[in-house]
Each structure stands twice: as structure tokens, then as C-alpha cells.
Amino acid sequence: MALQGPFAVIADTPAPDVVDALRAAGGFPIIETTWADAAMALAAVEPEAIVLADACPDRARADALTDLLGEQRDKGNGLFMPVIARTRDDGPPSIPDAFAIAVNAPPQRLIRRLSTAIRIRTLHGTVLRRMRTLASRGEQIPELSTTDPLDEASVLVAGRGRSYPNLSVAVGERVGVVGALSVESAARALHARDIDGMVIGDGFGPKIVEALLTVLAEDARFRDLPVAVLGGHPAVIEPFAIELANLERISEGPQRLVERFLPYVRAHAFSQRLKRMLKSLDAKGMLDPDTGLLAHDAFWRDLNRAVDDAEKRGVGLSIARFSFDDDDRRVSLDAARLLGRLMRQVDFACREADNSIFAVFTETDLRAAHIVARRIASVLKNTMLVPDAKKGGIDTAVTLATLKPTDSIDSLIARVVGDVAAG
After folding, report:
1. What is the DSSP letter of 227?
2. Are 261 and 250 in contact (CB under 8 A)?
3. Alpha carbon of 299 to those of 106, 148, 275: distances in Å?
4. How buried is residue 392: exposed, middle or buried, by Cβ count under 10 Å (0-12/13-18/19+)?
5. Which residue in 43, 105, 128, 93 sits closest to 234, CA to CA?
6. Which residues pair with 321 in a beta bridge?
7. SS3 for 358?
8. Deepest of 162, 163, 193, 195, by most Cβ within 10 A of its Cβ?
9. What is the pTM of this model?
10. 181-218 b/e (C-beta count within 10 Å ≥ 16 → b)
11. For the domain 149-265, what is the CATH code?
12. CA-to-CA distance for 346 and 363, rounded, in angstroms?
């Protein structure tokens, strides 16, 4: 994509490689400023993105810029602001949560990564405009969550070497972790659930690392996925660096990997949130932007219509309630998003305030509903994120009820809430 400015390049020494790359990609205008003047320059104009072409020599100046960016973000409906920071070795960026990239990375790779981040900014702007337009018409719209996207992010950690336990712990302290000890299990996880980043640890040979990266590069869904490779294999990784925009190799260990990697994970999770929000706005609020399932009011309207239709046509209708022995919000969101992938097109569901999930199976009798619900419960149990405290996994309880000729909505729901079935 052609870049449209303005863009800010901050460096105390000229950075012609960055400026020339931005210009070649169509970026205009380009604001070049030193660290001493950065806060003043950016207070006058909000750029589309910022490139920190060298490290800040003065902590106070870096803090001043950090504070300014925070104020701009919090002011009104501040747009997502990409900040890419070139760093030497695996050092931390000058601005917290900036997107770190090696100083010796080819300029084309920086532009590719910048383009990916700007797409998130564009998506954010689209969502905010749609929200303002619908609100001006007096329509009820869902709220865009303001929580840290890392609170609902999931990272796939693949590896089987000595550092794998420490790597899993370091990542798991900040986000949900999906573990994989083989290429096959990693590929299954990628296709079965929403993943916001992937870490490839040690214990894999070059051919296995190449196979993992090939899986990602060959699928358009994963080409913007943040991918961090711990340790070696530079010759294997380099050919994938253009196709996978957010691919990085980090050699300094689990903690430094997490420090450099999580800003990319946060941005990816934020983009997924924006995409769900856009679908919700397109559906006029009928979809829950947190889960992608039906919103509460829409679910009960559809349930009333489905019951009326089943009674008129004399067909079956069953409803299941999935509840969990953990009240963690991340677990509930993860289960709801997984369930949305597993359901048939004719079925519908919603997540309740108590974190349980109602799922309606249309044209389905109790026996068939048992089979479907057990299959879903089994997949949830084996796929859901598991908090560290739940070493044995999370139990999924399933209750079922099918529509009887004498049923009302209230009696049907009372049975599914009160009955107990094996899950």
C-alpha cells in the first residue's frame, strides 16, 4: 500500500535510509526532527506514524515524548498511533510499547511493518467514524472496549527445549498461552482458534522452524501475525522476513523477547477487536463486539422467533447452556469465540452476564442436541485457555432442554438452567 503522511522521523543524526524509504513508498510530508525538538514538533501536528530512527540519548526527552503521545491518545477519540523504534541488538526501544525493529533491518522491512501498523490506524478511524455517524442518527450502538487488548490476547508458544518452561511462564504472565510441542499441534491451534502472536522457542531444528514459518507465510490470514523466534536459525528466518511483516528473531532470552514482542501482540489483538466492532456496527448492534456472538437483546428476540417457527412448523428446537468452573473473563471470552467457530450457520448463541453461554440448535431434537453439545464441550475442554491455577483444565458443564408442545420461553429456559447433563 502507498503511504500517506505526514510521517515523523526522530533522530539526532540524519537517517537518510529511513527518509528515502518513506519517500519511495509515497510518504509525504516527512517531518524530520531531533529528540530535543520532538515533543514540540509533534504537538503541532499529529502524524500518521512515528519512526524513532535512533535511540534517545536523554531519558527526560524520551519521557516527554511518551507523555505527549499519551495525552494525544487520551484526548477525545485519539487514533491508534504506530511508533516504530530502531534498536541495536535486542535493546529496548526508547518509547515504552513502541514496535522495536533492528537498526540494521532493511528499510523495505521497516516500511512493510509500518504499512501493517497503519492499516490498524485506518481501521480504527473507520470504526470511530461509523460510531459517530450512527450515534448522530440516534441509534443505539455498542461501546468500543477501552481495556488493554492484552487482557484478551492469546499467544501460541511452540517449542520443546530447555527454555520452553521459562518462555511459557514469561509470556503467560502477560497474555493467554496456547502451548504446542510440535508443528502439527501448532498448526491445529492456528486453525482452531484466534491467535494474536506466535513464539517459536528452542528445541526445534532448522527444518521444523522452516516448516512452521512456511505454514504462516502460505496463509494470508497469518501474514501480519507477530512472530518471534528465540535464538538461532538466522539463515532460515531471513527468507520469510518480507512475507511475514512482523517476524523477528530475538537472542537475549525469554524476558527480552516478551518486552519486544508484546507491543506487536497488543496491536494485533486491538485490530481483532476493531474487526469485531465493525461487524457489530454493520449488524446494527445485533452482534456482541467482545465475542462475535449475538448481543443479549438480539439473542432473546431470535429465540422468541425460533420458538414460534418451531411450533408452527412442528420441528425440533433445543437449547444448551455451557458453564465453566472458572469465572475468569478471559476464559469466558475465549470459550465464546471458540464456540462461534464450532456452531452451524442456522444456530445462534450469546454470552450471559454470569459468563455462561446459551446456544440454540434449530431443527434439532434432544438426541441430536446431546451429540452436538458434547462435541462442542469436548473441543472447548481441550482447546480453551487454562489459567495457571487450573493445572487439570477447566470443566465445562452442559445442560440441555428441548422444546415441548406445552413450553413457553420461560419454562424452556427454566429447564436448561435447572437440569443437569453430563459435559
Report:
1. E
2. yes
3. 50, 27, 21
4. exposed
5. 105
6. 358, 399
7. strand
8. 195
9. 0.92
10. eebeebbebbeebbbbbbbbbbbbeeebbbebbebbbe
11. 3.40.50.2300
12. 9
Domains 7-140 and 149-265 share a fold: yes
DSSP per-residue codes, 17-29: HHHHHHHHTT--S
Cα distances (Å, whole numbers) of residue 373 to 347, 390, 404, 415: 12, 23, 19, 16
Q: For residue 29, say if its preceding peptide bond is cis, omega within 30 degrees of 0.
A: yes
> Domain 7-140 is classified in which CATH homologous superfamily?
Response regulator (3.40.50.2300)
Find out whether 344 and 368 touch, Cβ atoms under 8 Å.
no
Residue type, 207: K
Cell numbers 420461553 correspond to 409
How would you write the pLDDT of the chain (423 residues) with one tens digit per residue? Answer: 568 879 999 999 999 999 999 999 998 899 999 999 998 888 888 899 999 999 888 899 999 999 988 888 777 568 899 999 999 877 789 898 899 999 989 999 999 999 999 999 999 999 999 999 999 998 888 989 989 999 999 999 998 888 888 899 999 999 999 988 888 888 888 888 889 999 998 888 888 888 889 989 999 999 899 999 987 777 888 889 888 999 988 887 788 889 999 999 999 999 999 999 999 999 989 999 999 999 999 999 999 999 999 999 999 999 999 988 766 788 888 889 999 999 988 999 999 988 899 999 999 999 999 999 999 988 888 888 766 545 556 778 899 999 999 988 999 999 998 754 333
Q: How far apart are alpha carbons 54 and 94 in whole angstroms?
A: 9
C-alpha closest to that of 50 among 101, 106, 123, 104: 101
- Identify each DSSP E strand in 218-353 by its residue range: 227-230, 247-250, 317-324, 348-351
Domains of the chain, residue spans: 7-140, 149-265, 291-418
In angstroms, the CA 21 to CA 160 distance is: 39
Superfamily of domain 291-418: Reverse transcriptase/Diguanylate cyclase domain (3.30.70.270)
Residue written as cell 417457527?
Answer: 309
